[in-house]
Amino acid sequence: MSHLDNTPSTPGKFKMEKSPYVHNRLRWHSSLAKLTCWSFMFLGLILIFFFRSPSSNPLPQDPSRRSLRTYNWGGPVWEKRVRSSARIRSRNGNGISVLVTGAAGFVGTHVSAALKRRGDGVLGLDNFNDYYDPSLKRARQALLERSGVFIVEGDINDSGLLRKLLEVVAFTHVMHLAAQAGVRYAMENPASYVHSNIAGFVSLLEICKSANPQPAIVWASSSSVYGLNTKVPFSERDTTDQPASLYAATKKAGEEIAHTYNHIYGLSLTGLRFFTVYGPWGRPDMAYFFFTRDILKGKSISIFEAANHGTVARDFTYIDDIVKGCLGALDTAEKSTGSGGKKKGPAQLRVYNLGNTSPVPVSDLVSILERLLKVNAKRSIMKLPRNGDVQFTHANISLAQRELGYKPETDLQTGLKKFVRWYLSYYSGGKKAAG
After folding, report:
1. What is the C-alpha separation between 303 and 352, in angstroms, rounded?
2. Is 247 marked active-site?
3. Counted domains in the chain
4. pLDDT digits (tens, 9 = 90+) for 131-152
């Protein structure tokens, strides 16, 4: 059982000769067309960011998710806390020092706690935005502080802060989990995705490539990069140039940007494609979470189905299994080969799927929750909206098994049981609002 589970808290015919020359030209034109398409897509995302940034077109309902806040940081006391939190305390002396961005997030909290338990140095960074209830993030922060993890409040787009952190501590690794999550919200606030998932990632890479020594970077991509026309199960070798949502496009952009920084600057980079992570201390915007809330409140829940009554299924992956994959990626990450922005040799570049390999229909998820909560759900069957959500996800994890020793062990029934136990404790029997 997870160490955090029991913690109480608050996508004209013509004829031609079949010559190799013609075929080669066609292949070249096809590659050029794809490159041009991606270039225009990236350019469009950047334009969205600049024209919808707070300075030119602020949206009053959520300025904190796009603006770069000013936080209080620096000074002797602050630096002392940073160094203390990042100090390696492993008994064998072989620990690593890790900067975890998005440390107050769901995965960030669990990864930070696991690293700290085994004696690694851990420093968190989070901007505590209000995409979902910030009080849940503050509760996670308190949980980590009790275990000795200090979370610096700041934005990954704040290059001055990032530079300072890498000056105070010579981090061996960065676990980059800070991102704007959610497929559907991207239709409401696309600029926040460009701000966090693209601009923020570039900001982090810029600072890390100039550091001496450069840290190895492990970052969270997403199963959403597998968009249209993807084979099942999803393999890292599959083509992922047709993202189904803006969120997926920003994550795909991150993988391409990582390739660039690895190639030019020698940064060691490992991308992890997470598949529907769930568990205690989870995100309230995830289906299993708000299904639990609404079932307890007697509210109707919407269960989506695809065209022709097709089943919608997800490769639900329990948080403890994801954490093991994250730690495996960190432990097998090779050192970056650059120094001060100059590449000295080829550097490691990897991408792995971290899933459970057992897709479960969403309707079965609801049935399990009904049994655990001892309450019948009021089900409302609806057509899957055209917002970028895909009908199913299914991870091929053979590469992660072979190279990271990754082996998911928690089935959905067991994992949801642990989540429900935490939920009932944290929300006092469902009486407290879930954000």
Report:
1. 30
2. yes
3. 1
4. 999 999 999 999 999 999 999 9
